[in-house]
Design a protein that fits this description.
single chain, 336 residues, Jelly Rolls, seven-stranded antiparallel β-sheet, five-stranded antiparallel β-sheet, 22% strand
Length: 336
Amino acid sequence: MMPIEDACVSFRFSTDSLPEAARAKAVRELYERTRLEPLEPLPNYPVRADITKRSLPGLGLMCGALEGLRQAARPKESNSEDDLFLGVNLNGDSIAQQGDEEVELRGGDAVLATRGSTGFVITRPRPVRFMGFRVPRIAIAPLVGRLDDAPIRIVPHGTETLNLLVTYAGAIADGQPVHTPELQRLVVIHIHDLIAATVGATRDGLAIAEGRGIRAARLRAIMADIATNLSDCSLRVAAVARRQGVTPRYVHKLFEREGLSFSAFVLGRRLSRAHRMLSDPRLADRSISSLAFDVGFGDLSYFNRAFRQRYDTTPSEIRRSAELSASLRAGRDTRC
């Protein structure tokens, strides 16, 4: 499969549609068409690559799955290649090697590397789902101090800022492309902050990162927590704060900085999800009260009032409109 161009996406590439015999050649040729570090198939292992790379000014972000492959970063040849690499094993095991140094990455671990004078190699014999970051060293240096070409090192799984980085970057990778220069710059600054905090920021650098990238990532993680637990009628800020390892007051402050409140955000997400479900013809056999309960409303009267205030219509009218649209589409399909 050839790389597919998209805004803010360098490429998407997958061997999944290729026969086994053609996969090794496809991944070898990938380097010739992209700036991806070369991939070399491992003998006697099945080969699979399914990757997406997003490129923003000052950031390369690659996510996906690799199997039966060895990826080699060439040695540093000029100051223009003075980048830092942070690779995260979301699950699966791999081996990273630089010179005589070799480390094993388990699920959740990350490895920090520079090209140095020898380059480095990451070997993934078995399936690994991963996330990789490439950033200019100069962007991170003000927050972490001196960064020599030290050997590769592990950032262990469970590191709080690493978890925040993965959550924040995952939302960027899975979401819509970031088009505006202002938003691109903000995203890149946040990720720089999170990488610096993950690999070891100075005291001043950590304070800066806490006020920018870490705060944004915590808010993103809290919003994801809310979305996951939206059906809990008793969802409270205290429970979310406890799961995220922060105080309820800190959660409130994060929302206040965005001009929101915790309760208003939860209500808005519940109403939005209810609207999508009511508009889905596949759920037409479900009662409105059961859908309201599914998104966390314990009081049907309150749900109806809040829904009408938000959408200037009733849940029943939204459902009727969806059923009519589905009926019209079915009629057009029958005539065709």
